[in-house]
Amino acid sequence: MKKKYLIIFAVILIVCSLAAVGACQKTQESEDVAELSYWMSYIKDDAPITDIAIPGTHDSGTLGMISVCETQNKDFAGQLATGARYFDVRVRDKGDEMVFYHTLSSSNTYKAFLEDIEEFLTANPTEFLILDYQHRDPSGDKEFDNKLFSMLLEKLGKERIVCAPEGMSNIDYVNSLTLGDVRGKVLVALGDQKGVTDYSFVMVRDADASAREGSVLHSPYVGKYNKSDSEEYVNNYLDEYISMYSQYDGGICVLQGQLTGGVSLEDKEAKHDPNMSAWIRALKDDGERLSKINVVMRDYITSKKCMDIIQLNIYKGYVKDSLINEFNEIVEKLA
After folding, report:
1. CA nearest 13: which of 101, 136, 76, 133?
2. Do residues 302 and 266 make contact, with C-beta atoms less than 8 angstroms apart?
3. Distance between CA 253 and CA 288 in Å, rounded?
4. In terms of CB atoms within 10 Å, which end of the chain has fewer, N or C?
């Protein structure tokens, strides 16, 4: 019976998606900028990873899905080259293959994701990535979780994964880390009923709207907020989220910049983007809000969206003094 309802739901999604394709607005792409592949090389070594302004992608593995599920139009290598350093990882076990999913399964494999990360970090050792395993299917299954992280360890190697030293809690360790400590590495956070794993580098993240003890990553999500009107979201709910994650004692804080729900998520993002991007750019004149910005997650990431977030590091004082002029030249390319 459950399978029958899933099939009906999938058919409804496909019909609605096809009906919307002709009417939806498209993402306005911006030019490729080579420097965004290594933008962290412009950032000071002593910048805390819990305070650097970092672009991220929501539902990172949805390229090529139907419009009601797709939130990105770039593959993983493209997102990295565009400047994204945080990834919302949602993986499903299909038996012979692990694939990304967003309600439905995509054709984007976990293996390809890991290969792109390994290739990217080899070419760009100044960069640091956050892999946020928000949801997975099956959830909380030890065998599946260990399969996920054994593949990660095998592909990247222990030296490329952030791990707290023995006797130090994960949250204390993360709060102590600077960019210089983690260049060329990834930090791994796992949520949604975290089960026991045999991998000490796997750190706890919050549930959608509530904290877990020892959480190193806070990314509050309240459905009614993100399904609201764009102007209401920007004017009211972004501050609600900032207030929610600011109550905790440090950690990496992720601001949800996307709207969710609807027949075409690209259309929704195209209409939302002017409001969201204007809000981000205005942070340079708002010291109180700026001080609370860390990771900002977006749909349909572009070079311009990433640069708007990365540019905030100038106002945070984290761009290397000797490279400010070069950094501003990159900003000008996307102005």
Report:
1. 101
2. no
3. 15
4. N
Q: Which residue has the tokens 């593959």?
A: 75
Closest CA to 88 of 58, 54, 110, 53: 58
Per-residue pLDDT tens over the stretch 41-90: 999 999 999 999 999 999 999 999 999 999 999 999 999 999 999 999 99
pLDDT digits (tens, 9 = 90+) for 228-247: 999 999 999 999 999 999 99
Tokens representing 319 are 């761009």
The beta strands (E) that lie in the chain are given as 54-57, 86-93, 98-102, 104-109, 129-137, 186-190, 203-204, 217-218, 252-256, 295-298
- H or E segment to which residue 309 belongs: helix 303-310
Cα torsion through 235, 50, 158, 148, rounded to 10: -20
Cβ burial 35-61 (10 Å sphere, 16+ → b, else e): bbbbbbebbbeebbbbbbbbbbbbbbb
For the whole model, what pTM was predicted? 0.93
DSSP letters of 273-304?
A: HHHHHHHHHHGGG-HHHHTT--EEEESS--HH
**Dist CA 93 CA 99 (whole Å):** 7
Q: Answer for the pair 174, 251: CB distance below 8 angstroms, yes or no.
A: yes
Q: Is there a contact between 187 and 193 (Cβ–Cβ < 8 Å)? A: no
DSSP 16-72: HHHHHHTT----------GGGGGGGGGB-TT-BTTTS-EEEESSTT-TTS-TTT---
- Would you say 119 and 88 are in contact if contact means Cβ atoms under 8 Å apart? no
* Among the listed residues 96, 79, 162, 97, the one whose alpha carbon sits nearest the alpha carbon of residue 88: 79
Structure tokens, 146: 């260990």
- In the numeric block, the tokens 């299909």 are attached to 94
- Where in the chain are the domains? 33-333
